[in-house]
Amino acid sequence: MVLKSARVRPARGRPRPARIVAFVLALLVYAAALFAAWAMSFAAAMGTLPVYSATTTATVTAMVSEVFPYGDDDYRPCGPRYTFMLDGVAVSASSPNVSERYCSLAVGGPIDITYDPSEPTSSAPSPRYDRSPAWVPTALAVGGHVVLALGIAALVAGRSKVENSPR
Question: Where is the DUF3592 domain (predicted)?
Answer without folding.
Answer: 56-124
